[in-house]
Amino acid sequence: MNFFEVIFGNGRWIYLWHGLEVTIVLTTISVVAGLFLGLILAIFRTSTATPFIFLTRLQKKNTPKLLARVTSFNPFQVFAKIYIGLIRGTPVLVQLLIMYYVVFGSMRTVPKLIVAAIAFAMNSAAYIAEIIRGGIESVDKGQLEAARSLGFSHIKAMYYIVLPQALKNAMPGLIGEGVAMLKETSIVGWIGLSDIMRGADDIRSLTATAFQSLIAAAILYLVLTLIFSKIMFRMEKKLNNNEDK
Q1: How distant is the alpha carbon of residue 124 from its chain centre?
Q2: 10 Å Cβ neighbour count for 134?
Q3: What is the pLDDT of residues 96-155, one digit of tens each?
Q4: ∠ CA(61), CA(66), CA(70), 5° rounding?
């Protein structure tokens, strides 16, 4: 059978169509949620908060080193470092299977799409956090100090001055992470979710041909990647034009 007979014969294209819908929805939810979580993690990662600083009143001349460490302890930064290290140090497939079989193992009423979206968002957040952290650190620290001297709180200075510039600087990295997330969703077939790859596999099993169905899946991923990249690059260009005005 030729390519068109394999894909369109007996309406088999519907497997890829439903898979395309699942892939688009899953990627959109994962990227948006991952961006939100990643932004929070990046703020934690660059935080200078020391909530136990009040213990300094207990310090004396011979203050124990332990007390000195406690007063300078930053729980937000430590949490972000541990989270990012764990997520980046383990395969996304393992995280997906843990989320499905362990975390939601006793809650089968939760849709597989939601379970997968949570797993991918948590994974993407770790990478996005480091990308945004790089963007934050690329902003001149003098701007933050100037804002504080003008009466801005640290939160307001970050929100109005630092983060807009940081996100603009981090845009190329965020685009790359979005593209990577789109392609990583191809593993959701491991938990029985019918995405593009699962649709291609169904066609392969029905027609006993692998080449045509896999080429069709590759074309769909390529088209989605090009469309996503085009939209994001236009957004980046628009941000740069607004910055120049």
Answers
A1: 2
A2: 14
A3: 999 999 999 888 889 999 999 999 999 999 999 999 999 888 888 888 788 878 887 777
A4: 105
